[in-house]
Predict the 3D structure of the following.
Amino acid sequence: MTRRGGAVRILVYNWPLFAGTWTLALAALLFLSFTRHPLAWVAALASGLALVWSIGSLFVSYYIYDRSPLASGRWVPPLLGSPNPAWATIDAGLDAEVELDAVMPGRCVARLDVFDPRIMTSSSIARARARTRRRTPASTCSPTDLTLENEACDAIVVAFAAHEIRDRVARQAFFGELRRSLRPGGRALIVEHPRDLANFLAFGPGFLHFVPRTEWLRLASHAGLVVAVEARITPWVLALALERPR
């Protein structure tokens, strides 16, 4: 299956959640139409909110992945700093959300697929991998043991993949591997939905799947990386350029 639009991908990868939400909400609204219980309006409000939230999240996803500056990728090179970098991209099997080859100067030295079912336990990522074919080949490895030589890269791009490492210790090891693979002065670009108010308003309880900004900063500090640039690519997407000190 080829890459589809952002909203369609979100719906396909998370269809049990959407189907369950819509079924329960519609069943509750139907039941409530036959009752005069004093608290019926509370249940009706909750059901309506669930429907609006789930549908609204699809519109937000469409904007983010198909209409916002995110898709162009022109914002990536300025965050990485190096004019002619040896760069790598790391994902969990779904490529980056931007065509890095179209915007990145320098040369790509590695494309890594770090999917590991032992520490990437979300059912949505398993469905995504089963339903979406890669656009570019990649080498497989563990997020805790990257197949990159020491100081091999001036830049490493990790877009919407790091949060899939659900284990805290494994995430720390992953950030340590990023630092090991960077040359002094090199940068790792972490692009993620943070667990914050904007994503809560857009995705409701689904925002709990994301990782707080404070955790990304903690992981960077633990690995000996410093924040060189922090930017918002839309109100819902955070980009952190983490530099290995010289």
Notes: The chain has two domains: 6-67, 72-243. The domain at 72-243 is CATH 3.40.50.150 (Rossmann fold). The first helix runs from residue 6 to 13. The two ends are 43 Å apart (CA to CA).
